[in-house]
Amino acid sequence: MNCIMWSKEDVIISLACGYVHKHSLAKFVRLDKPYTRYKREEFAEIVSKESETNFELLKFLQHKKEQRVAQDELNTLYLKEQNTLPCISLDPNNHVDWVKELEEYKNDTKLRSKVFNGSWK
Predict the structure, then answer these.
(1) pTM of this prediction?
(2) CB 59: neighbour CB atoms within 10 A?
(3) Which positions ≥6 away from 47 have C-beta within 8 Å?
(4) CB 26 within 8 Å of CB 36
(5) Rounded distance, CA 14 to CA 12, Å?
(6) CA 55 from centroid of its chain's CA atoms
(7) Under 8 Å between Cβ of 56 and 28
(8) Contact 58, 2 (CB under 8 A)
(9) CA-CA distance, 48 to 50, in Å (whole number)?
(10) d(CA 86, CA 88)
(11) Measured between alpha carbons, how far is 32 from 43 in angstroms, rounded to an integer?
(12) How large is the greatest C-alpha to C-alpha distance in the chain, in angstroms?
C-alpha cells in the first residue's frame, strides 16, 4: 500500500465530501475535548499532524480514499456502459468493498466483450 502524508487540506476535503467522518477519525487521535466541539479546520489540523506518526490512522485514511476512488470509477463506468448505477449487495455488516466490486465489474466486462466479439474460444 502506498501511504502518503495527509495535509490539513486533504483531511478537510475528505470530511467535507463525506469520505471519512469525524467520529471515525476521533478514534485514532487524542483530543482535549469531544470531537463535536472542534471546528472542521481545527480537527483537520490535529488529524493531519497525528497521521504523520500514527500508521493505523494513515492506513485508515488511505483505505477510505481507495474505496471512494473505486466507487467513483465504478459508478462512472456503469453509467457510461449501462446508463444506470450499479446494483450492489451489502455484506452482513452493511459495508461494500468498492475496490472488489470494481475489479469484479471490470472482469465481467472483459468476459462479456470476449463473448460478444466472438473471441471466446
Answers:
(1) 0.75
(2) 14
(3) 6, 11, 25, 28, 29, 57
(4) no
(5) 5
(6) 17
(7) yes
(8) no
(9) 5
(10) 6
(11) 11
(12) 65
Concatenating the DSSP letter of every residue in 78-101 gives: HHHHHSS-------TTS---HHHH
Task: Return the C-alpha cell found at 31.
Answer: 483530543
pLDDT tens series, the chain, 121 aa: 455 778 999 999 999 988 899 999 999 999 999 999 999 999 999 999 999 999 999 999 999 999 999 999 999 998 888 888 888 777 777 788 999 999 999 888 776 665 555 554 4
How is residue 57 written as a grid cell? 490512522
Amino acid at 70: A
List C-alpha distances in Å: 78 to 34, 41, 89: 41, 35, 15
Q: Does an H or E element contain 57, and which?
A: helix 55-82
Torsion over CA: 49, 46, 43, 26 (sign): positive
Dist CA 28 CA 21 (whole Å): 12
